[in-house]
Amino acid sequence: MLSSRLEKIKPSPTIAVTTKAKELRELGKDVIGLGAGEPDFDTHDNIKNAAIKAIKDEQTKYTAVDGIIQLKKAIQEKFARENKIDYDLTEITVGTGGKQVLYNAFMASLNKGDEVIIPSPYWVSYPDMVLLAEGTPVLVTCPLENNFKLTPTQLEQAITEETKWLILNSPSNPTGAAYSHEELENLANVIRKYKHVNVICDDIYEHITYDNFKFYTLASVAPDLRNRILTVNGVSKAYAMTGWRIGYAAGPKALIKAMAKIQSQSTSNPTSIAQYAALEALSGPQEYLQDRNKAFLERRNFVIEKLTEIKGLKPYQAEGAFYIFCSCEELIALQTPNGDTINNCTDFASYLLDEALVAVVPGVAFGMKNYFRVSYATSNENLKKACARINEACKKLT
User: Which residues are CB-contacts of 105 (< 8 A; sequence separation ≥ 6)?
Assistant: First the structure.
């Protein structure tokens, strides 16, 4: 009954961790979840009010498949204002979250055997979406020595005649690493040599950066490559609107049109109310984003400090997002109080959940063994308790 394509993919590991943590909570356990990738802040009141107004104004009918014109104009203005990129409205699409936008892009562009270069560590859904579209993920390991970022040499070595896309996620999930202007220009120099290579820039964490890091996206750094770049973004992370499910992208007109065609035969338009909320998010006040970033920065610094104090753990301090990618390599092969051996990062994550009631995501979910990801998008109180529990659990390993 089921399709054979399902054999190629696996359920989202982040959702799996969240689900197990929820099950333990339902049993009365005081589980602290550091697995989910969503801000704990509320959606801002002006955005909520815009949604309420849309309901009262009866903006509750079908819209254009790939977004209302008002929202497309706000996206157009956002790209011009913040990224210095000019797009025609026909080059902009709106989907039900950034994930659908990416899925539409792969479904609209990949033929069987087309290759997609994915720097590793990577967001968990990239390889599986490529596989569902009958493409071939080409995973390129980007170690800590490279700050988990793709180098021009690695890129050139990975390119073949079958390469269709390169994915750049900056700031990155899971590491938070972000590409500087110079690093993007160096990658662009390689891409220019291969006319058949296109780039998806996943900029969903654009507004969450620290330490005076200045964000750039490839289309602004290399405008001559504009027609080979799909720039993907959304309101989920910066505006704390994960459940509203609005993502968007800008790119070549033919691709955008094809993506709308795919969407027309799946979900059709994103929720009308959510579109009006996203319109307010992009065109309304932006000052509060910096206040939230200050809170994220304080949390990042606190968790980095506490994890660094724990013997056997080595956290990576990155430029953006709200994750810490932490090495647990020195704890591999140690034994738990029950006599079980920590054979890998999955065992370690399971141990933390069982012993410390702290949910983290093992690095193997992101293509990197001997690491785990912590999300600090939760309260200071939770982070303080979680770090103390992790410390106590690690002390028990022998």
Answer: 200, 230, 232, 249, 255, 259
Contact 217, 83 (CB under 8 A): yes
The answer on pLDDT for 15 being more than 90 is no
Assigned token pair, 248: 């968007």
pLDDT digits (tens, 9 = 90+) for 277-316: 999 999 999 999 999 999 999 999 999 999 999 999 999 9
The end-to-end CA distance of the chain, in Å, is 48
Residue position matching structure tokens 């799909």: 230
Average pLDDT, the chain: 96
Q: What 3-state class would DSSP assign to 3?
A: coil
Q: Supply the pLDDT for residue 9.
A: 82
Handedness of CA 143, 147, 148, 154 (dihedral sign): negative
Q: Tell me, letter by letter, the H, E, C secondary structure of 96-147.
A: CCHHHHHHHHHHHHCCCCCEEEEEECCCCHHHHHHHHCCCEEEEEECCHHHC
d(CA 71, CA 93): 10
Q: What is the DSSP string of 290-348?
A: HHHHHHHHHHHHHHHHHHHTSTT-EEE--SBSSEEEEE-GGGTT-B-TTS-B--SHHHH
Q: Closest by alpha carbon to 325, among 366, 279, 288, 282?
A: 366
Return d(Cα 275, Cα 51) in angstroms, integer.
8
Say if residue 171 is preceded by a cis peptide, omega within 30 of 0.
yes
224-281 pLDDT, tens per residue? 999 999 999 999 999 999 999 999 999 999 999 999 999 999 999 999 999 999 999 9
pLDDT at 14: 65
Six-digit token pair at 46?
């002006």
Please say whether the dihedral angle defined by the alpha carbons of residues 242, 248, 249 and 255, taken in this order, is positive or negative. positive
Ranges of beta strands (E only) in the chain are: 32-33, 92-95, 115-120, 136-141, 163-169, 198-202, 229-234, 247-250, 314-316, 323-327, 358-359, 361-362, 371-375
pTM: 0.96
Q: Exposed, middle or buried: residue 20 (CB in 10 Å: 0-12, 13-18, 19+)? A: middle
Q: What is the pLDDT of residue 159?
A: 98
